[in-house]
Amino acid sequence: MEISTQNRRLLFGLKVRRLRHHLDLSFAELSEATGISVSYLNEIEKGKKFPKSAKVQSLAKVLQTTEDQLTSTHLPKSLQPIGDLLQSNILEEIPLDLFGIEAGKIVELMATAPVRVGAFISTLIEIARKYALQQENFYVAALRSYQELHNNYFEDLETAASVFANKHRLPFGESFSLEHLYSILVHEYGYKIDEEGLGRYDSLRSFRSVFMPEEKKLFVNKELTDMQRAFLLAKEIGFNYLNLEPRLYTSSFVKIETFEHALNNFKAAYFAGALLIPQENLRRDMEAFFALKKWDGQAFLDIMNRYNASPEMFLHRLSNLMSRHFGLDELFFLRFSNRPGTNRYILTKELHLSRQHQPYGNATEEHYCRRWITLWLLEELYDLQQKDEYTTPIADAQRSRYVGTDDEYLCLTIARPAHPTPDTNVSVTVGFSVNDDLRQKMAFVDDVSVREVSQTCQRCPLTDCKERAAPPEILQQQAVKQQIAMDLKALNQ
Fold first, then answer.
1. Mean of pLDDT values over 289-312
2. Which domains, from first to last, does the chain contain?
């Protein structure tokens, strides 16, 4: 792979820094010997500047090397991990600037202890390989961290949605017609809409949309509900109004080639949520709901239906606003999927604000606790389907107290069949850390029943659990290791 210009500057600066330290030269001494200012030398070592040939020659002479050796991408063995990292250009793919980190700082850290840091990076790579982590996994994880860093609230996107609604005289805060959204895409952005094309290909039947940029043609799955259509169209408007490029052209993540693809997809989706569920309207609705003395699942669903929103869109929108408008920033968002009638539950999306909360993603072969509302509500949904009694999404609440910890969460969950994906049910949950602050904001907290839960069956110490799906193998292994440690300590006494 050809090394990028930025990384070539980083390598050059790294070599200059290493040779300067080797010769025990200060910036001032190197500046005096080369005629290059201290500030410019500092910029060189940080990888921000690459000097012209005359200055390179001067540096090479003073640093007792050759121009070719100084400018080549070859590094000594001790710095090879850094070279491998820069040769891969991965630092350009990592959105370091979003987190306030300079690539030069990463390289500088590696340069101070190249063997140790190189070994650490190699370890991370091996872990990634073992768990079959792909580039897409990394980008999605980086995006999730970016959301968490901002408490999943973005004022600029909120403002953009409000300005757009006012400009187009949309009934902001009310369910506006699909025809209005279609009209904006067709007449303002020159779209062509096709609702038949995806149905002609079996492999594309589960896609909600595909966009062909050359023709500005949007293929929409005709099996989508009106609420799914509204979100899809609003998201397309977001791509155009916010000038988001590069972008993904499929509703499903077939392949994410850069972090910008993931970030721009998120921004367009956030814009759509803010357009369809304005923050001030939802804030007022949730203030009234949180004032209820008792949990009311139907009232919760009524708010969702007021915005013609899907459960995922509704609860994700809550995760946007809870920190900003209610001061509740210790929360998580989860989405699980399940093939009805099977015992496999897959965590397909998670977000944690303030810190990592329980539950969270675990090794893929472990069985998540069946006492979680997120899972047992899916079982209730399946029972309704078996009895042919399912009509609308179902909602419930649970206070989950994690055995062996001080963690307790109020979980609000909605379950429904996936659409248009066949033979799949999904549940979405937003969970809040139970504390005095939560009780002040939500009057019904103590009305919700408490259930003792664990992370996974393999790690659970509960002995009377009727829902257990697997023996506590990991817990037993940990107990054996603890006993060995205790016996070794006693043996040494």
1. 95
2. 5-133 (1.10.260.40), 148-276 (1.10.10), 279-479 (no CATH)
